[in-house]
Amino acid sequence: MVTDPSQGRVSSEFTLKDAAGSPIPGLTLQPVWTDSGYRSAVQIPDGVLTDGATYYWNARACTTVGCSPWSAQQKLTVRVRPLPVPESKTLTLIDGKLAAASAATDCDAACPATPDGKILAGRADGHDWATWIKADLTSLPKGSFVTGAKLSLTRADCITGCTAQKFDLFQLAAAWSPSQSGNELLAAASDDSYASGEELTVTNLGPMVQSWAELGDNTGLLLRAADGAPGAAYYSAAVGDAAKRPQLTIQYVPPSAPGPVEDVAVGAGDKGLLARWNPPLTGGAAGEETGYTVKVETTDGLVVAEVETTVPRSVITGLDNSRAYRVAVTAHNTFGNGPVSRSALSQPAAVSGGPDLYKTYVQDYLEARGRIMTGGSLTAGDAAAESSHGAVFRDLLQAQEEGLVGAREALEQRGQSYSSASAELSDVLVRRGTNSADVIVHATVKESETVRTDGVDDKTEGSSDKRFTFTVKDGAVTLATEADDASAGLTLSPTAAAEAQVEPEGSEDADLPADDDGALDLDDNGFPVTYGVSRVATLASVVDGSGTANWAYKNRGTKWEYKQDCTNFVSKALYYGGHMKFRNGGRKADHSWWQEYWLFGSIKNKTYTWAGADNLRRHVTKYRHAKTISRAGSAQVGDVIFFKWKQESRYNHAAVVRANSRGELHLVQHGIKTLTTLSDVIARYKNKKNSIEKILIVRVKDR
Question: What is the pTM of this model?
Answer without folding.
Answer: 0.83
